[in-house]
Design goal:
Elements (H helix, E strand, L loop, with lengths): L36 H4 L1 E3 L10 H20 L13 H6 L7 H8 E6 L3 E9 L1 E5 L8 E4 L6 E2 L16 E4 L5 E2 L4 H5 L9 E5 L2 H10 L1 E6 L4 E9 L7 H7 L14 H10 L1 H10 L4 E6 L17 E3 L10 E6 L6 E7 L9 E8 L1 H8 L2 E11 L2 H6 L2
Parallel strand pairs: 3-16, 4-10, 13-15
Antiparallel strand pairs: 1-2, 2-17, 3-17, 4-9, 5-9, 6-7, 7-8, 10-11, 11-12, 13-16, 14-15, 14-17
Helix pairs in contact: 2-4, 8-9
Length: 391
């Protein structure tokens, strides 16, 4: 889903990962002020053959790796670990490796530990909610396309010396001034109505709120068809995880009168307390705009579909986009080979991962309970670690 400045939900248990946002763990094994894999330190790991990579896992990883090769061969690697040419031999060989994927990964890759190698992983999924293409009673929550007045611009008051990085998002108001874009409250109260931006409507505002946090999802339309929507942009307003607010207010926990610290618990509170729930949701001023997707899966940060149990979101400063990743966690369901194809606003630092679990109720359950710690190895083209450490 270009790099996505979106917040994909990670409903786990640590620090209320079900709090609607990918959160950095309360304690991270690697210093968070280190800004690249090279600075974190790169050490050789065990041989790929020692992992016991199964055929099904390898074949799924191979398919995702093949889809990632165009990005590997054209993008600058922000980690400082590889050059596009390093990946050429593996990408050339990959299409012919179907049926022998395990041998392919053993032949072309070595493993590297970035920093401590101590991994923390959460999970995300593609939600499915009820919707319709045209507004009707019981289906009235607008799904907006990206508005054309949402622009990036430096405010006139910003000194030239401070104009570094990307300009902020905003709009030009009626006085010709650059101001912040409409926040969640303003949009819900009709700031964008009448402009023809609605690509669909959702039936449930609470479900739509959570789908926005995921950044993509499926609308089960009233005619029996399915419409897949994906991230198109964001209003530039700050993101607030409402689960963290609820915990601060003593609403979540295991005590009497408290709600479970999970997505289900948060949604239960909002439904049982609609006015307070609306106020909570509006604390998250961020709003996600969508576009209809016609491919076979939601798109990750490198523009290819993310795949169940194969795609993982990473911090691209520490893991090259498209690189295979091996996870060995205390949550066995997430053990195995993943391909780095996505990112997220709170996936920050070395060895921080968010595993993708597809769509459906089982995906919701697995992603909702995913909060795993263990070890991570990045698979790099053979010879990379020696070259890096000889400099």
């Amino acid at each position: 889903m270009q790099s996505l400045p979106r917040a994909i939900i990670a409903f786990g248990s640590l620090a209320l990962l079900a709090a609607c946002g990918r959160l950095v763990p309360e304690s991270t094994p690697d210093p968070i002020d280190i800004t690249s894999a090279r600075l974190a330190g790169v050490k050789s790991g065990p041989a790929v053959s020692s992992f016991g990579l199964g055929m099904n896992d390898a074949e799924a990883g191979l398919r995702s790796f093949i889809e990632s090769c165009p990005a590997l061969l054209r993008r600058e690697d922000r980690t400082g670990l590889t050059r596009p040419s390093d990946w050429q031999p593996a990408c050339d060989a990959a299409p012919a490796a179907t049926g022998s994927a395990t041998n392919f990964f053993q032949t072309y890759f070595e493993t590297a530990r970035i920093g401590s190698g101590e991994a923390f992983a959460t999970g995300y999924f593609e939600p499915e909610i009820r919707g319709c293409r045209t507004r009707k009673p019981g289906c009235e929550v607008p799904v907006y396309a990206l508005p054309d007045d949402l622009i990036r611009k430096w405010p006139d008051s910003t000194p030239e010396a401070d104009r570094t990085g990307r300009p902020p998002l905003g709009r030009i108001d009626d006085n010709g001034d650059f101001v912040q874009y409409y926040d969640r409250t303003a949009i819900e109260e009709g700031a964008l109505e009448g402009r023809g931006l609605e690509i669909a409507y959702a039936a449930d505002p609470v479900e739509m709120f959570f789908l926005q946090i995921q950044g993509s999802g499926r609308l089960q339309l009233d005619d029996g068809s399915v419409m897949r929507i994906g991230y198109a942009g964001q209003n530039g307003r700050g993101y607030t995880g409402i689960g963290g607010v609820m915990r601060e207010r003593g609403l979540l926990g295991e005590g009497p009168g408290q709600y479970a610290g999970s997505m289900q618990g948060i949604m239960q509170y909002i439904r049982e307390n609609p006015e307070d729930g609306k106020e909570l949701m509006r604390l998250n001023k961020s709003w996600i705009f969508f576009r209809e997707l016609t491919g076979d899966g939601p798109l990750g940060s490198i523009g290819v579909p993310v795949r169940r149990e194969s795609s993982v979101a990473v911090d691209p400063r520490f893991v090259p986009y498209g690189a295979p990743v091996w996870l060995d966690l205390d949550r066995d369901v997430a053990d195995g080979l993943w391909i780095a194809q996505d990112t997220g606003g709170a996936i920050k630092g070395a060895n921080r991962f968010d595993t993708f679990w597809g769509a459906g109720e089982d995906a919701r359950i697995i992603a909702g309970g995913m909060s795993g710690r263990g070890t991570a190895y990045i698979l790099l083209p053979k010879g990379t670690v020696k070259r890096l450490n000889s400099k």
